[in-house]
Design brief:
Number of helices: 13
CATH superfamily of the largest domain: HUPs
Shape: elongated
Oligomer: single chain
CATH topology of the largest domain: Rossmann fold
CATH architecture of the largest domain: 3-Layer(aba) Sandwich
Number of strands: 5
Distance between the termini: 31 Å
Number of domains: 2
Strand order of the largest sheet: 1-2-3
Structural class: mainly alpha
Bound molecules: iron/sulfur cluster
Low-confidence stretches: none
Helix content: 40-55%
Length: 324
Amino acid sequence: MKGRVFSGARPTGKQHIGNYLGAIQNYVKLQEEYECIYCIVDIHSLTTMEDVSNMQGNIHEMIVDWLAAGLDPDKSVLFVQSHVPEVMELHTLLSMVTPLGWLLRVPTFKEKARMQPQNVNYGLVGYPVLMTSDIVLYKADAVPVGEDQLPHLELAREIVRRFKDMFSPVFPEPQARVTSSPLVLGLDGVNKMSKSLDNQVDMAATPEETEKRLKAAYTDPQRRYRSDPGRPEICNIYKLHGFFDPENMADIAERCRSARIGCVECKKMLAQAINTTLQPFREKRADIAANPEYVKEVLDDGARRARIMAGETLGEVKEAMHLL
Ligand code: SF4
């Protein structure tokens, strides 16, 4: 029997190439090995000061991108977190077994509290309990995480162990499936690619938009003139070539160092490589986007399947906690 993987992502709307290289490609691969449960975590978005007025639009764009990129509703359960209200019930129940001290020590809580001092809400401190509920409600065996997220998963495992000690072993301890996803920097060449920093290239951008976005990207600041030799090793455009155009890396590096290629031409080559790679995705995306009924069906069916698993787990939890 296949193991079960859970992963959640906030509804950030159209996905960019950083999402694609860092998470989506891995999600698609995992489908072959695991029973995958992929969730758009809309409730988590409410804990921070993000603008949530376009939540429904963002959920729609994101699931369209996921489907076009290869997430397959026949292989994976794809749904929206709040469509399975059992997660909120489990969150309340697990909050009774989670010591407050554990939550106050979480580094991301301290960081978020610093970033939004005017809104240090209860949901922010309880975030890891909701995250744990997301994972254990479906009895996931594994969670794909980067090295930086390991402490969060460890906290989830501690909550599971505490529940087991206080009541019974309802949940499996979720294991980390550490994935070394590449760090994809944005067009500023400094920060991680992110929509909030407006330094991204959307997967669904047209070829013209892709070229235009890349035109504004930072390169080697030492190349003030076309005749200046460049340093590909410090240039983010060069790194992006590595993802989309690896066979040309040596040639580009050599031509950059000897000033035989200018940044304008180099960026055009990158745009072409990205456009070629993403063309099948973009065609499929256009078909899916033209059929919003299908998208709704996928999410409704995903929530229905998720609720069956959730209901069973919640029944066991209530029984263990003497609520039934
Ligand atoms: Fe970067 Fe290419 Fe310009 Fe060299 S030629 S600095 S690799 S964009």
